Amino acid sequence: MKLYCLSGHPTLPCNILKFKSTTIMLDCGLDMTSTLNFLPLPLVQSPRLSNLPSWSLKDGNAYLDKELKECSGHVFVDSVPEFCLPETELIDMSTVDVILISNYHCMMALPYITEHTGFTGTVYATEPTLQIGRLLMEELVNFIERVPKAQSASLWKNKDVQRLLPSPLKDAVEVSTWRRCYSMQEVNSALSKIQLVGYSQKIELFGAVQVTPLSSGYALGSSNWVIQSHYEKVSYVSGSSLLTTHPQVLYATDLLTLKTKVHLTQAMVFSIASYAYGSWTMNKEDQRRIDTFKLCWRRILNTPWTAKRMNKSVLEEVQPECSSEAKMARLRLPYFGHVVRRDQSLEKDIMLGRVRGQRKRGRPSSTWIDTVTATMNSGIRTIPMDQASLKNSDVLLLTGLTQIPTANPDGMVGEFCSNLALTVRNGGNVLVPCYPSGVIYDLLECLYQYIDSAGLSNVPFYFISPVANSSLEFSQIFAEWLCHNKQTKVYLPEPPFPHAELIQTNKLKHYPSIHGDFSNDFRQPCVVFTGHPSLRFGDVVHFLELWGKSSLNTVIFTEPDFSYLDALAPYQPLAMKCIYCPIDTRLNFIQVSKLLKEVQPLHVVCPEQYTQPPPTQSHRMDLMIDCQPPAMSYRRAEVLALPFKRRYEKIEIMPELADSLVPMEIKPGISLATVSAVLHTKDNKHVLQPPPRSTQPTSGKKRKRVSDDIPDCKVLKPLLSGSIPVEQFVQTLEKHGFSDIKVEDTAKGHIVLLQEAETLIQIEEDSTHIICDNDEMLRVRLRDLVLKFLQKF
Amino acid sequence: AATLTPTPRAGAGQDVGRSCILVSVAGKNVMLDCGMHMGFNDDRRFPDFSYITQNGRLTDFLDCVIISHFHLDHCGALPYFSEMVGYDGPIYMTPPTQAICPILLEDYRKIAVDKKGEANFFTSQMIKDCMKKVVAVHLHQTVQVDDELEIKAYYAGHVLGAAMFQIKVGSESVVYTGDYNMTPDRHLGAAWIDRCRPNLLITESTYATTIRDSKRCRERDFLKKVHETVERGGKVLIPVFALGRAQELCILLETFWERMNLKAPIYFSTGLTEKANHYYKLFITWTNQKIRKTFVQRNMFEFKHIKAFDRAFADNPGPMVVFATPGMLHAGQSLQIFRKWAGNEKNMVIMPGYCVQGTVGHKILSGQRKLEMEGRQVLEVKMQVEYMSFSAHADAKGIMQLIGQAEPEHVLLVHGEAKKMEFLKQKIEQEFRVNCYMPANGETVTLPTSPSIPVGISLGLLKREMAQGMLPDAKRPRLLQGTLIMKDSNFRLVSSEQALKELGLAEHQLRFTCRVHLHDARKEQETVMRVYSHLKSILKDHCVQHLPDGSVTVESILIQAAAHSEDPGTKVLLVSWTYQDEELGSYLTSLLKKGLPQAPS
Asked: Where is the Beta-Casp domain (chain B) (predicted)?
């Protein structure tokens, strides 16, 4: 079992797994950070961009003039943007049987693989992944084809030249394999190879392996994959989230929306119950009581007490803003600070447990300060995710963790809203570079709740993308893939996302591009959502040129895929305010270690980036995967041999054969049966059939050739085990008509002499030797008597 | 051996009234559908659940309930069953069914209780409580009900969200089709199932003998009739169920009206149908390919010409087309409008679906022109009555097609009329050579199955066998020899050596040595040489060796020669072999006993 690693990007993976007789490609991510080295493609002729000075080598050689331009100290390639493809030389792509896609961000390299490498297999993805992936590709192709650029630079790629270029061009990897964007035709052809699957659908591959997509909670239709045979299991975790903003988590329903109920309970019940939470000393008994009390949620959900339901699942369903422990911790810590900063006081002494005197026998009772210490050492987020299906994996391949491990997505959304409101109130415009699907749904939903209270109801929101309309429409029809309270809306029936209402009330307008209707409707100040987040192509280029010079305006980065400083480099100097609110709901390292503790894989494999702290924060030892045994790491173009050995394979025993088996109990609870059967193998499925009835050769017919008679020595006889008690054996012999039996003792055992038959039987602990004259009848009789005492295997 | 026992529970059997089937697969009990009979207004309406278990709770007996689609003859008795009879286990259905089912139930409840004043009927709260027990199943998702029982849904194309279900326990499986349609229509796709080779396929057979004429003809016919009536100023009443056919006919009329530029109004009866169209918009992934592709540009379910109906409109003069619920004219608004319009021969009622016995729909379709209504009123029907089969059931061809797709071992026909089913049964048995059953209500069919037993084989043993067994030799199939270790419920097949090792047992060697007397005056070495060349010439396929210590081996059988202690002219050959080589050993002794051939020289 081998893993071929074709991409070094941890969140845009592309790996190939060879497992049993199948070759499975896991994801097909396209590294688009390469485009940051290129100049932006302006929609409207930009005098600034077209008049940038050329950059030439220090030796004065000017042949790179046309290809390289300089802008505020950075060097950019003036060419059609190019992308860094997964490695295609490592393995013959025509041997790949299937490609499994985990989410729509991880399929962008699909046309390169399916169209140009001889790939002939099938691609599996969920329906939202296919549809939204199509939109992303369509947008990308549209953005690039809309601005035709004659020039395609290649001179700078020469290794000798690249060496001399300033960083980051100098350090760019595999530049010779960088490719231009695919065409819509290639996209359509690639997507036609996708076969749609649903969560928990079991897909058989050649009868050898079964693959199953599981909800990963990250995006619409995003999935983790379990690849298993009957005795081995590999889990592929890619882009998972425990923070389910809109994707699917399952729970039950009632009249009031759950959210309202949770708010009500929190306001009216917990506020009283949690009075002075911060000063409580938690011991086991208290904890138990609080845990019991928390389960008043059950009441709220109308879960009958008879229903077998885990407390955990109840909490998962309710998802209170934070658990009572978290709230307690939140209150406890300020109180701690409050107490500690005091001058000497009795209260401080008591709270910190510094009371003099002897304590009573036994374990010291836990004190408040112990509770504080415990809080400091534990993570606060406690909402669990259902990971049951990933359990007991032999190997867990872990990719697509959060790119911003230090930021809390919830906080970022809040920051996003407040910055947006601030700018608009001051008369500025807000630009949000984003993908046409995904986080934008969450942002719109937040704004929907926020607009009126923030007094933004008159500010127009524009969503500009060639696929804006489709994206908004599609998001409404994937109800089955949404979390439960969104699903419940569909049952009413109402559109699951509130942006339908924003569109109806004309607060949100969408346009395919800045040309056309948009220019007539355009009013400022406004908020514009548009792509591409790399700021190298798409309508966003125009808005940056338009608004960049005024400090009233703000650009808010929410997509974590590109470094915002690098993205902004060709627009410098920039007067516009820049806010960085990356929203990445994928797993962080704390969640990963919890996940690993829960699912207990034998081995973990991950990109090398996850096995060491990020280079910018090398002291943060918590920002890496910590597990036992240590995770195996991979990097681009590496081949890993995965450390597990297959021991068993499934085989079916036909009922007729099963009926003929005679099990015998060897030890309590363990039975054995010898099997002798015919093996049939078809389509990687093995079946044992009963042996054909032995057709005794009727005499005369088959005597023509001597060799017919020679027994097939390949017929294996069972092994024997056990030992023969001499006295009983002799008795048995006598019973069967042997007389004149003499027994002699030897060093190791006994010798039984049958004098009449001139036969000698040596019996030892683990062997029996029958020495007789050539009398087949006698030999067989003796054999059968011996076998009576032995067990066959 | 385990058995499959499907029992149609007081329904389904040979009748299109209500569906309710109980299946036991390898000890797991699953109830398929829970329908009510629309023709009855008394206790006979609901299936007789006392059949299921005489004593003990239903929840303990049944592992799960599966609802195939939202038609009341498939889900109508669900609240009665779960809340009034008492069942707390899981109920599985697809998301569209889950969304629409409670609305239809509530609608029906209102008619039954509020209008007719029936007692002993489920309440609104019961419908809600019942729906809380529902778990949504997505297409092709494999739902693990418990450790052994799993179910999987396939697209059935009968109405929005209709599904066929595969129920699987170990290696035994049953497929229940519910109602399905093998030809894609204007808004739904065709049913599809993979080659899952179930032990039993339970299929509906509503149109067991019909092979319906082409869809297009029927559509043209329908439009022509509606058009003619509207042209001559008549009113058209189309009794429909809120969801399903209504949407298809709406699309049909909508496009026709647009093309012909007609002005006559088209109405939906209640808000229900309007709401229903919303469901179609939101569950567009369950419709057919074409609608899904174009929905971004234009949602087919946003109708321009079709408006909501108000009761007052029924008395308006001039032509109109009205879709009214329910579809069998047994109650509610469609019946009201029917009574108003029945007297005028210019008007027309088009029945687009099947009507069960006892309903007004069934009466007028069977030609009755004088109807007795409540209060001994007699209603004379002068309006034209047309029947058009638009209900999306598979016809005989479709049923055969599905059987071909799934390749079941046995077929069981339900939800049809006995005579027609008999015909279909013969046809199926002829064509596919599978057993076909058609149980009556309350009858139990038991099918013995003999499942093979899955065990784990050690890879070493398997690879060894595969390597040797690669040469296909039909005459003498290789025998695999191994030991099956059964520990708790864990079955493993390993090689005998490994089994001994694992159990910590020592091998017991059983060895035989036979003395064979040969008359040969020559020296021992020469005797041995003769034996060697003799064996070599006969045993061509075996490894015969002459060892330097003066012995001969055939495979692992050792042959040594010694002079007889008394008679120097006789040599004694000692042939020694282990129990495992017994066959060859005894063959050799008998061979040697015959003596050696005379030496050539």
From this structure: 246-364
The enclosing H or E element of B590 equals helix B582-593
Size of interface A-B (CB pairs under 8 A): 286
- For residues B80 and B172, membership in a common domain is answered with yes
Q: What is the ipTM of this complex?
A: 0.79
Contacts of B279 in chain A (CB under 8 A): 490, 493
On whether both B40 and B185 belong to a single domain, the answer is: yes
CB-based contact, B509 to chain A, within 8 Å: yes
Q: What is the CA B527 to chain-centroid distance, rounded? A: 73
pLDDT of residue A551: 92
The top-scoring range by mean pLDDT among A191-195, A231-235, B8-12, B546-550 is A191-195
Among A243, A250, A245, residue whose Cα is nearest residue A301: A250
- Two structure tokens written together for A363: 């374990």
Helices (H), B318-469: 332-341, 360-365, 396-406, 418-432, 459-469
B472 has pLDDT over 60: no
Give the model's pLDDT for residue B474: 47
* Under 8 Å between Cβ of A247 and A441: no
**Is B590's Cβ below 8 Å from some Cβ in A?**
yes
B465 classed as catalytic: no
Residue among B83, B204, B254, B386 flagged as catalytic: B204
**What is the mean predicted confidence (pLDDT) over B436-454?**
81
Rg of chain A taking only CA atoms, in angstroms = 36
CB A3 within 8 A of CB A15: yes
Tell me which residue of A225, A235, A231, A228 sits closest to A209, measured CA to CA. A228
User: The whole model's pTM is what?
Assistant: 0.79
Which one has a higher pLDDT value, A340 or B377? B377
Question: pLDDT grade, residue B271 (50/70/90)?
Answer: low
Taking an 8 Å cut-off on Cβ atoms, the answer to whether A650 and B499 are in contact is no
Q: Is residue B342 part of a domain?
A: yes
Given B351, B371, B387, which residue is the final one in a domain? Answer: B387
- B138 and B45, same domain (yes or no): yes
Contacts of B600 (CB under 8 A, 6+ apart): none
Beta strands in B269-383 (DSSP E): 306-308, 320-324, 348-351, 370-372, 378-380
List helix spans (H) across B238-288.
245-260, 271-282
Name the band, by pLDDT with cuts 50, 70 and 90, for residue B274: low
In this structure, the answer to whether residues B378 and B431 fall within a common structural domain is no
Establish if B397 belongs to a structural domain.
Answer: yes
Closest CA to A441 of A384, A500, A497, A512: A497
Domains: count for chain B = 4
CATH number at residue B306: 3.40.50.10890
Per the structure, the complete domain to which residue B132 belongs is given by 3-211+392-443
Identity of residue B601: S
User: Tokens 């299921």 correspond to what residue?
Assistant: B52
The amino acid at A179:
R
How far apart are alpha carbons A75 and A53 in whole angstroms? 10
Q: Would you tell me how many other CB atoms lie within 10 Å of the CB of residue A56?
A: 14
Distance of CA A241 to the CA centre of its chain: 9
Question: Greatest CA span in chain A, whole angstroms?
Answer: 121
Using DSSP, state whether A170 is helix, strand or coil.
helix
> What's the whole-number mean pLDDT along residues B144-162?
90
Regions of chain A short of the pLDDT cut 70: 60-62, 243-284, 291-334, 336, 340-344, 351-386, 484-485, 693-716
Rounded Cα gap, residues A22 and A1, in angstroms: 10
Least confident residue range of A431-440, A454-463, B92-101, B208-217: B208-217
DSSP, res A266: I
CATH number of the domain bearing residue B586: 3.30.310
Q: Which residues of B touch A670 (CB under 8 A)?
A: 485-487, 503
Predicted confidence at residue A702, as pLDDT, reads 39
Do residues A221 and A129 lie in contact, with contact meaning Cβ atoms separated by under 8 Å?
Answer: yes
